[in-house]
Write a structure and sequence with these properties.
Elements lengths: L12 H29 L5 H37 L3 H36 L4 H16 L1 H17 L3 H23 L11 H27 L11 H33 L4 H38 L3 H28 L1 H6 L5 H14 L3 H16 L4 H24 L4 H33 L1
Helix pairs in contact: 1-6, 1-9, 1-10, 2-3, 2-4, 2-5, 2-8, 2-9, 3-4, 3-5, 3-8, 4-7, 5-7, 6-7, 8-14, 9-10, 9-12, 9-13, 10-13, 12-15, 13-15, 14-15
């Protein structure tokens, strides 16, 4: 069965935003539970394991930059051709994007595996923390082609206007991950499964995400007639178009990771492993859920904008942005309230070490103030991404992320504020980026109106 392509103009922006945002939000929250699962299940391995996985998060974000090199282009192009009702072009985007993307991920996986010791040193890890971080990262790189399959297929679904299927597949994958994590981390003697420690968390992630991605490929082939075969031709002209859209997004994501890694090395490492562990729990185990919650409407708006522009209706695209902005900021305010009122309760889920809990509470109480700015910025950035206008957003993001490096050091060590200064540097950079991206969004949307 192949479903027909429907026009976005047949559904009001508010109704479509509500229909798409809640599954996208839930799907992203479920995705965040990969990291939550890891942080939860490794707590019995000690503080060093918590710190190691927390630090590895930023290398994983750097890896995601390679995914977005084609991921963002696939979403924008699929959405455009869905709005234009051009199924053959959609097949070209899907086959060319997936096949070239998998080739790229194999290459990145091989390079990353051999570069793991260097990456761990770059993070500022030392001693047992470094050993554990290297054990985890090396397995992630071995499994990288499987790890990326799920987020790439999610982008195809979002471009098609379907966020429900990725949500159910995310629930399946995260559930499998929750079961596999304790089995592979601590072993199951009766089943002959050895205890792998933090490496077991990496294997659990690769297996669960990979299986979810394989199921997604089957659904796309059966329901939308989008199939990936060995003999699928790669249309390099289409790959270049997707890459032009994806490169600025990938550079922005890479800058985020590199900037944060530099902050870890220059500002967080001198503060010691307790602050590192607090950051790992606060960022991985708690704030990642908030980020995914407010990012759901942003994922929805990217496809909504792309389909409406493909269908020749830029005015409706702008209305879609306003609707999704309200949803995302509303979600962010809810999480800000939680971070300010019950940070101790949230921290207690992951650690019972008083000094670590204290650092988690400090982190949450500070980043609570930048959640609305993060929500608004994500909406404007994803809206421009759905329209294929990513260069300006990338320039703003890169500048903001690299500004964090001297700002964090200056507040934390120059002024002697310690971890408090690092977390406030993150807040200030988020609001500065938002102040610049708003006029960019208005200018680019006016240009789209002129083109139409």
């Amino acid at each position: 069965m192949t479903i027909p392509l429907e026009s976005s103009s047949q559904e009001s922006p508010l109704r479509e935003a509500l229909r798409l945002s809640w599954p996208a939000t839930l799907s992203l929250i479920l995705h965040s539970f990969y990291r939550v699962n890891d942080q939860y299940w490794i707590q019995d391995l000690g503080r060093d394991a918590q710190a190691a996985l927390g630090m590895c998060s930023f290398v994983l974000i750097l890896n995601f930059a390679f995914i977005q090199l084609l991921n963002s282009g696939i979403l924008a192009r699929i959405a455009f051709f869905t709005g234009a009702k051009n199924r053959e072009a959609m097949k070209s985007v899907f086959g060319s994007g997936l096949k070239s993307g998998m080739i790229l991920m194999v290459a990145v996986g091989v390079a990353g595996f051999f570069a793991t010791p260097f990456l761990v040193r770059m993070l500022g890890a030392s001693g047992n923390v470094a050993v554990l971080a290297e054990s985890y990262l090396s397995r992630i790189y071995i499994l990288l082609p499987l790890v990326v399959l799920k987020p790439v297929t999610d982008s195809v679904f979002i471009g098609l206007g379907n966020t429900v299927t990725p949500m159910f597949l995310s629930a399946f994958s995260v559930g499998l991950n929750f079961v596999l994590n304790p089995m592979l981390i601590y072993g199951v003697e009766g089943l002959g499964i050895p205890a792998m420690g933090v490496a077991g968390a990496a294997w659990a992630t690769g297996i669960s995400r990979g299986l979810g991605g394989v199921i997604a490929l089957g659904i796309l082939g059966r329901v939308w007639d989008l199939r990936l075969r060995i003999d699928t031709p790669v249309h390099w002209k289409e790959v270049r178009k997707m890459t032009r859209i994806g490169i600025p997004v990938a550079l922005s994501t890479a800058a985020y990771a590199i900037g944060f890694i530099a902050v870890l090395k220059t500002s967080v490492e001198p503060l010691g492993p307790v602050v590192q562990a607090g950051l790992g729990i606060g960022f991985n185990g708690i704030e990642s859920i908030a980020y995914c919650g407010l990012f759901g409407p942003a994922m929805a708006v990217s496809g909504m904008v792309g389909r409406r522009i493909g269908g020749g209706d830029p005015q409706s695209a702008r209305i879609s942005v306003r609707v999704c902005l309200g949803l995302s900021v509303g979600i962010s305010l809810f999480f800000s309230f939680l971070f300010l009122t019950i940070p101790e309760l949230m921290a207690s889920i992951y650690s019972h070490v008083p000094e670590v809990t204290r650092e988690v509470v400090l982190y949450l109480s500070i980043v609570a103030w930048s959640q609305p700015a993060t929500a608004a910025e994500s909406i404007f950035a994803k809206a421009l991404g759905g329209a294929g206008r990513t260069a300006g957003v990338s320039a703003i993001s890169i500048g903001g992320y690299f500004l964090r490096i001297p700002l964090a050091w200056g507040l934390a060590h120059g002024l002697g504020l310690g971890a408090l200064g690092v977390w406030w540097a993150l807040n200030l950079s988020n609001y500065l980026k938002l102040a610049v991206i708003v006029p960019l969004y208005r200018r680019e949307m006016e240009r789209l109106n002129t083109v139409q």
